[in-house]
Structure formats: C-alpha cells, structure tokens
Amino acid sequence: MSTAADAYVAREAERFVADWRALCRIPSVSGDLAAIARAADWIEERLAPLFDEVHRIDIPGHGPLLAAVLHGTGPGRVALYTHYDVQPAGDEAAWTSPPFAAELRDGCVWARGACDDKADVTARLQGLQAWRSTFDGPPPFTVVFLADPAEEIGSPGLDEALTEHAELLHADACVWESFLRDDDGRPGIGFGCRGSLTLHLRLDLLRADQHTAFASVLRSAPLELMAAIGSMHDAAGAVVIDGFHDDVLEPTAAQLAATRSIPLPTAAVARPGVSPHPALPEDELRRRLVFAPALSLVTFVVGADGAGVVPASAEATIRFSLLPDQDPDRVIAVVRAHLDAHGFADVQLTEDHRILPAAAPIDTPFARAIVDAAADVFGDPVVYPVLIGAGPGRIVLDALGAPVVSPAGTLRPGGNMHAPDEHGAVADYLDHVRFSARLLERLAANAF
Question: Model pTM?
C-alpha cells in the first residue's frame, strides 16, 4: 500500500538523509553542554515550522528538554519521545571512520548515535512533514514532541520537567524511542518497559587477608557471598526469593499468545556446540523472555590482591530485571529477608540504582495503529507485550498519563549500538520515515 506521504518521502529522500547525517555530526555526548546546546538549537530550528508551540525547558546541568505541541481538532493526544544525547565514542581508533563524521558508506550512515537516537529525532520530524503535506489545516489530534538531553545517563530531571509542564504536555499514549528490526527485516514492537534494580552486596569477615594455612578454620568471604547470590536462583536461573514474584502483573491470554512468535536470541549468542539457554521448552523460554523477572550478576570483586591468601572481604553487584507492577522497595525488603533467613545476615546490602517498570495495553486503538503501520511498511511485526529492556518510560506514564510503546525504527541487531562503528542503513532509515508518517495516518483512521 503506497500513499501520498510515501511519495513525499521518495521525493525528499536525499534531503532527509542529509538532515539525519547533519544531526549525527553534532557530538552531543551526555554532559557536553556546548554540544548539547548546538544539537538543541538544530532541532529547535526544525521544530518551529511544524509545531504551534516550541519550548526549551532547562534541566540544570544537562541541557534543555525540547517540548513542542501541534494542536489538533480532536481530543486525542499522542506524544513522540526521542533523545538527542549520545554515548561517548570510546576509542576512536576502533572506528573505521571518525565517530562524528556521519560518513555515508556501503549504503549506511556510520556515526555515534546514528540509530540511538538521532534517527528517531529526524525520522519522526520528517514523517510528520510527509503526513502534513497530504492535507491542509490542523491535524485531527494533537501531537506532542519531546527531545530529552540526557537519556543515556538515566534522564536526570526529566520527571520534574514533565511534571511541572504536565498540563501542556499530557498525552493519551507515547511513541517511545525505537526498538529493533530483526536481521530478516521483521519489526519488533515493545509495549511498556521493564524496570531494574541494581544492588551492591559486601561481606567483610576478617581484619585482613590471611595465609591459606588457616583456610580450614577461617570463613571465606568470596565463597559465602557466592553462596548467598546462588541461593537467590534455581538451576534454571529462575528467582526463588520468597515474595519476590508477588506483585508481578499477570499476563493476559492475548499477551501470552503474542510471545509464541518472539524469536529467541540463540544464533546471535551461542558458542558452537553449547546451548546458551536453560534446558526448557522453547515456548517457556519465550514466556520467560517477556514475563519472568530475572537476576544477573554484574560484578564480583575479591578483596585479595595476590595468591595464597584467604580474602578478608568480597563484594558484588547484582541486577534484578523487574516487571510491572514490582516495587523496588519491596524487592529490597524481600532480598534482605532472604539473606537473613538463609544464614547470610552478615552480607551488607545497599541500593545502587533503580528504574521503575511500566505497563502498556496491547489492545487499544493506539496499539492497533502501531501494529498496522508496522505491517504496512516493514512486514508483520513481532509483538513484545512487555519491552524486554528497561528505560524511563514510567516517568512519562506517571507524569503525562501516557503508556509507552517502542516500534521498530532504523536499528538492526548488527548496528553496533553503543559500540564502535555504530551505523544504520539508509534504506532502513527511509522505511523509518515512512513508518512515522504511516503511523500518524493510521491514528487518524482509527479516530485516535
């Protein structure tokens, strides 16, 4: 199905790709306020002719949240969330071309932030241009555009900025930053998002490291801490802490059915001859991928500096991947109770970081519009009833009342997001622009 908006994208393709590359050339690494300001100016210049109101909401120490509103004739309101900060480039010698050159090579644009998330910024603005070119007057619903200056470092200040301006920026639903297209081109659509809770565990048992001559009569901090962490999960990796699962939102029949078409990350992660998964049926693995909270060991540090000693201390960082409606405070409480009940009362427990999970329904007009638009442009989508990654979507849900959905965009699994030689294909990018326009068309058709 081809539309007038598709024809507009085809005519303007060269200009659209040039704009994408221009934004990628601005090295807007989180915290580099001069570069962040340059990127904000660039985006604001392109927001001004498309929206009725454009606001720069300062987040001290991080740069401006750009918030724009295009008023519609109907009651519906959709938010488009993007961010314009990027990860540091890292070792520039590991890049084939300079990380902020946005070189066009082999049909791709190569740059830090090319897909995460500058493709979203420009593709969504260009999709809005393409859609607006097909009619006169205001749109049938209101569009709110958000560009966050600090997502890569956890979106500090976003909650306060959105809460303060909630009357202006409230929305019925939010198109979050993009999810993946699989290697075969199938688009992923993630609803809501997981949360996360990172905890630091420390065990101090001796005044100092001791000679191994005493190993038979001294407690080992590393071994006891390993045992404490090991007691939190079973042989198949499931969390077995009493009360941990009590608040997990039960999936609906439709959500469970949707997991059956989700691909497992097998080929991309497996070593030859070694299964990367627990010995479980594939449908159970798919269910767990979406609907099972998880525990992972992030770091483990042994206090000893050399061999031949009994270490006095050990410390570890663990991360819980949380599902709606798990509360991090309650998780901390049940972890503490578990340690105490299983003989690990000496383990110290402190919180490092938390992100709240957020639920989003998959059976609304907004959800149907996203699925239909993805099918029109990319092909039949893979629906993730809960996005398998964590992010600040709960901030938008709480502050603006908008559940978040992450549709596929430009990024593919081999796009090296956050790594050297990050890139996106031009053909995928233009599909991204077309999808952005088609989504707005579908929302209008669905009387959003």
Answer: 0.91
